[in-house]
Amino acid sequence: MIGFPIALLTANAFEWYAHKAWLHEYPSRHRNAPFFTHIRHHKRARLNGFHDEGYRNSMWRDQEMFNEKVALIGIATVATPFAPVAPFFVLGVYYSAWNYWSTHSKAHLDPEYARKHIPWHHDHHMNANQDANWCVTRPWFDYIMGTRVISDQSAAETNPLGVKLPALVEKRVNSLARRFLPKAYARIKERSQADAEKRGTGVEQAVAGIA
Q1: How far apart are CA 127 and CA 120, in angstroms?
Q2: 114 with 121: CB under 8 angstroms?
Q3: Hey, CA dihedral for 59, 60, 64, 68, is it positive or negative?
Q4: Confidence (pLDDT) at 32
């Protein structure tokens, strides 16, 4: 059964890396890349207060929806042959793929849901700097890597797990996270302050390719 939580952690790491490297860095250098559609997704969300009507479209009518669904189906397909030896890991991959689509699509059709339940992704689209906050479903690796940039502390998650916890448990989790990730938390504080200053002066750092 340990395979299931390992899959969740692996999926979150992959979510962080793929979003950063494949959906932002690569298409910003190669405008003809198939994932350049993600840059257009950013533009739609930015111009419409995080809302992206494309998530109501069929994957056969919207290239971004097609790319996202095919990628998730592909990941699940690649994991399937390992089911006989790692069934719980594969179940975790299936769940992660489903949860990613469910969470991401719901959030972009309901910005208020995003602000309340996945504020890290809302910040990803609406902060001055859109090249941060790479995680979508949970902010785990943004805290580990120091890439969480918080726009409003009062609306942000109250612990790095991004889930509701009893007060005593949450206090312990926060204490341990700061103890073991001091450099990451220092970067988070520094970058959050810098982003607040940019927003305060109306300065925005556009995603490359959509300025």
Answers
A1: 10
A2: yes
A3: positive
A4: 75
